[in-house]
């Protein structure tokens, strides 16, 4: 073979090899970039981070070395979370499912923290510690957290039966019978009463709605999502802050004063009661089309003594306990009073619901 022909063949071979290598390099770099986007934490975000596990919620081990191993193992699993693990998202964060083994799973919420980082960080860990101390059968327990300058993750027990919103409104769910709905009403009232009256400092939830009420293995309700929670001083009756919450559940005074009070939570709870009774969201399209609201519509049916027309169609063929139905309508009406001072406390609501009730145990 002439030397010139060999040179051409060599040149073509080298160019082909370089072309293939460049393609492989580009593909590798694109994959790395894609995988970095898919992961919710990358190594650059971990600097200065702190992992805290509340032993009573996460681990029974009393050994420091064992707890450190658990923290390292948990952190490695957190780093492996990606977009395929997302189970929910909202304005205050994204929620991921973290499966530890066949029997254990957690819900991990990555917070979207806005505003002044310095101001947020000052009380951030103190608030998380307070949240970790909250133990009640109707509140989703905080099991731990990971806090870093660029990443803040809250770790909760995973509630296997989803949210009340999904149970009431999803076509893929079997719905809730009357007994289950009354248990939810009572359980949520107990959880809120605990936050308002028994926690020190007292806690205002500020975002009570059906999607923030989760259902555990036994279909018992658990209050979740303290991304909007405001901690009160023991002697304070309200907190002045930026209006936050969810349209349809907010009390009217929020728009006038911007004051977050326990009575605001009571109003939101009243809206949830109407949702349990009617099977309608406060943002139902039928209300928007008619220029009315869930609260206004139900109050009008009560004034006309036509409450049976407001009952969820899924319940109308059931034999409903009349006194329980009347009780929920009455409690909801009191909670939704336009004057916050006339609304009952959540402790009073619990007493009303527990009177002569088979679900009070």
Distinctive features:
361 residues; alpha+beta; Phosphorylase Kinase, domain 1; Transferase(Phosphotransferase), domain 1; 2 domains; two-stranded antiparallel sheet; 12 helices; 12 strands; elongated; Protein_kinase_ATP_BS; Prot_kinase_dom
Short description:
The protein has 361 residues and is an alpha+beta fold. The protein has 12 helices and 12 strands. It has helices at 3-38, 55-58, 64-79, 117-133, 164-169, 178-198, 252-257, 262-278, 285-290, 294-303, 322-335, 346-354; strands at 50-53, 86-90, 93-99, 105-111, 142-147, 152-157, 203-204, 213-215, 221-223, 230-231, 238-240, 259-261.
Structure description:
This protein is of the alpha+beta class and 361 residues long. It folds into two domains: 44-157, 2-Layer Sandwich (Phosphorylase Kinase, domain 1); 164-354, Orthogonal Bundle (Transferase(Phosphotransferase), domain 1). Helix content is 45%, strand content 14%. It contains twelve helices and twelve strands. The chain has helices at 3-38, 55-58, 64-79, 117-133, 164-169, 178-198, 252-257, 262-278, 285-290, 294-303, 322-335, 346-354; strands at 50-53, 86-90, 93-99, 105-111, 142-147, 152-157, 203-204, 213-215, 221-223, 230-231, 238-240, 259-261. Helix 6 (178-198) runs antiparallel to helix 8 (262-278) and helix 8 runs antiparallel to helix 11 (322-335). The radius of gyration is 26 Å and the shape is elongated.
């Amino acid at each position: 073979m002439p030397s010139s022909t060999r040179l051409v063949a060599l040149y073509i071979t080298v160019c082909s090899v370089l072309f293939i290598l460049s393609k492989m390099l580009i593909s590798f770099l694109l994959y790395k970039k894609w995988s970095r986007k898919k992961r919710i934490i990358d190594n650059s975000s971990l600097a200065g981070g702190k992992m805290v596990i509340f032993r009573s919620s996460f681990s029974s081990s009393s050994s420091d070395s064992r707890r450190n191993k658990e923290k390292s193992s948990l952190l490695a699993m957190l780093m492996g979370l990606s977009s395929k693990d997302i189970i929910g998202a909202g304005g205050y964060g994204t929620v991921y499912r973290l499966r530890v083994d066949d029997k254990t799973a957690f819900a991990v919420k990555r917070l979207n923290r806005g505003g002044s980082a310095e101001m947020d960080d000052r009380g951030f860990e103190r608030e998380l510690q307070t949240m970790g101390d909250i133990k009640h059968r109707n509140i989703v327990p905080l099991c731990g957290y990971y806090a870093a300058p660029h990443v803040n993750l809250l770790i909760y027990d995973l509630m296997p039966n989803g949210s009340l919103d999904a149970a009431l409104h999803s076509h893929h769910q079997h719905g809730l019978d009357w007994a289950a709905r009354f248990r939810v009403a009572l359980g949520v009232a107990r959880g809120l009463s605990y936050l308002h009256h028994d926690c020190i400092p007292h806690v205002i939830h500020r975002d009570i709605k059906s999607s923030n009420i989760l259902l555990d293995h036994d279909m018992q309700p658990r209050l979740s999502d303290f991304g909007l929670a405001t901690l009160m001083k023991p002697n304070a009756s309200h907190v002045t802050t930026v209006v936050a919450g969810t349209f349809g559940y907010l009390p009217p005074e929020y728009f006038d004063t911007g004051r977050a009070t326990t009575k605001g939570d009571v109003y939101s709870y009243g809206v949830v009661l109407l949702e349990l009774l009617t099977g309608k969201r406060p943002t139902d399209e039928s209300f928007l089309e008619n220029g009315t609201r869930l609260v206004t519509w139900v109050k009008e049916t009560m004034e006309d003594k036509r409450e049976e027309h407001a009952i969820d169609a899924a319940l109308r063929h059931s034999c409903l306990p009349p006194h329980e139905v009347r009780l929920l309508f009455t409690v909801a009406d009191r909670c939704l009073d336009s004057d916050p001072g006339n609304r009952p406390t959540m402790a009073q609501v619990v007493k009303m619901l527990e009177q002569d009730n088979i679900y009070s145990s």
